[in-house]
Amino acid sequence: MLYAVVEWNYILSDLAKGPNVWSTNFPTCGGTRNSPINLLSAGPGFVRTRAVPWVLNNWNGDNSWKVKDEHYTVKFSLESGQAMSTSGGGLGTVYDIVQFHFHWGADNSIGSEHLLNGRSFPMEIHFVHKNSRYATIGDAVASGASDALAAIGFFFQIQAQDNPQLNAIINAVQVVRQDSDFEVSGVKVRVTDFVTSAFKSSYYRYFGGLTTPGCQEIVLWTVFTEPIGISARQMQILRTQANMSFGVNFFRAVQPLGSRLVQLFETQPARRNRVCQDLTALSLDLAACLFLNDPSMLTSVCCIFQSELFYYKSLRLKVNNTIYACATESSTNQVLRVDNSNNINNMT
Ligand SMILES: [Zn+2]
C-alpha cells in the first residue's frame, strides 16, 4: 500500500512538519481568523442570541458513504448521486454536505479541536459542507470567500455503555483502520441516528478556517454544546490503526479569537444576566450591570451604559439592601437609586 505524501503532521516535536511550523510552511495557518477556538459562555467577543430552527435535508436518509483511513482521521465522503444539505440555524444560505470526519487524542482527556469553556472532549466530528452557490468543493475553496464552506461540529463524551447509534460508523472504521489509505464504498450511515439529540442544543457560530494546513479562512463554523455519547471501547477502535507512525493526537490547538465575534445561539436563553452578557461582549462601558452578578439581587435586567440605557421588564434591582431602578423611557445615562424611604435619586 502506498502511503500518501504529507507535508504536515500533528507531532509537536517535529520542527520540520509539526504544528509549531505550520504557520511557517503554510502562512495562512498564522492568520487572524483561524480555527479551532475556545468557546466561552460569556466574555469579550461572545454574543448571545436565540436559536434559529434548522432545515436538514436528507440527513435522515440511509445514505451511502465512501470511508477512508487518512492516518490522522477517518473520513466519510458522501457518494455521488446522494445529496444532503443544511440550511436555517442562522447560516444564511444552503450548504451541501461533502464529508464528515473525526478528531481525537491519545486518551479520553483530550481530542476535541474546539474547547467549551476551556474543556476538552475525547473526540469531535466535523460535517464539512460547501456553499451551494459553488458547483464543487474545489470551486468553493478556490473562491477564498469567508463563507465558502460551512463546518458543523459535535463533541463526544465517554459513557459507560457502547452507543449503538454509532455502530454503522464504528464497524466501518474497524474495516478501514486495517491498513493505511484503506477505503471501502457503499457504507450505509443514517446521520440522524446519532446527531438528533445534540442538534436540539445551543450552538456557537463564528467565521474561521480549516483546522489543517493550509488553514484557509473560508469556513463558517457551527459547534453544538451538547456532546454525543461514546464508550471507551468504541473510542479505542478509532485510535487503533495499522500504522501508528503518524502520532496519537489528531487535533489542532485552539487559536486566538482576535477581534472576531462568536454568537451563541441559545435554545433556552438564560434569563439572568442575559442582556448584560450581550452588551459586555460589545465592549460597551458598563455601569449598573456590574450589580447583576450579585446573588442578593431581586431582578436581573437593568443595564446602564455609556451612551444608552437598556432595560427589560423588571426594572428594579436590590443589591445590599439598596434598590436600584432604571429610569423607564429614558434615553439618557441614568441610574436611579431608590432609597429606604422610596425616594428616587439620580446617581449619575
Ligand atoms: Zn476537522
From TrEMBL:
Q: So which cofactors does this thing need?
A: Zn(2+)
Q: Which InterPro entries does the record associate with it?
A: CA_dom, CA_dom_sf, Carbonic_anhydrase_a-class, Carbonic_anhydrase_a-class_CS
SMART domains, alphabetized:
Carb_anhydrase (SM01057)
Is Lyase one of the keywords UniProt gives this record? yes
**Which positions fall inside the Alpha-carbonic anhydrase domain?**
6-266
Q: Which keywords does this Swiss-Prot/TrEMBL entry list?
A: Cell membrane, Glycoprotein, GPI-anchor, Lipoprotein, Lyase, Membrane, Metal-binding, Zinc
Q: Which GO terms describe its molecular function?
A: carbonate dehydratase activity; zinc ion binding
Tell me the compartments it is located in.
Cell membrane
User: Topology relative to the membrane, per the entry?
Assistant: Lipid-anchor; GPI-anchor
Q: What are the GO cellular component annotations?
A: plasma membrane; side of membrane
- Say which domain of life the source belongs to: Eukaryota
EC number, UniProt record: 4.2.1.1
Under catalytic activity, the entry for this protein gives: hydrogencarbonate + H(+) = CO2 + H2O
| Subunit details | Interacts with SLC4A4.
Sum up the protein's function in the record's words: Catalyzes the reversible hydration of carbon dioxide into bicarbonate and protons and thus is essential to maintaining intracellular and extracellular pH. May stimulate the sodium/bicarbonate transporter activity of SLC4A4 that acts in pH homeostasis. It is essential for acid overload removal from the retina and retina epithelium, and acid release in the choriocapillaris in the choroid. Reversible hydration of carbon dioxide.
Family according to the record: Belongs to the alpha-carbonic anhydrase family.
| Protein name as catalogued | Carbonic anhydrase
Which organism is the protein's source?
Bugula neritina
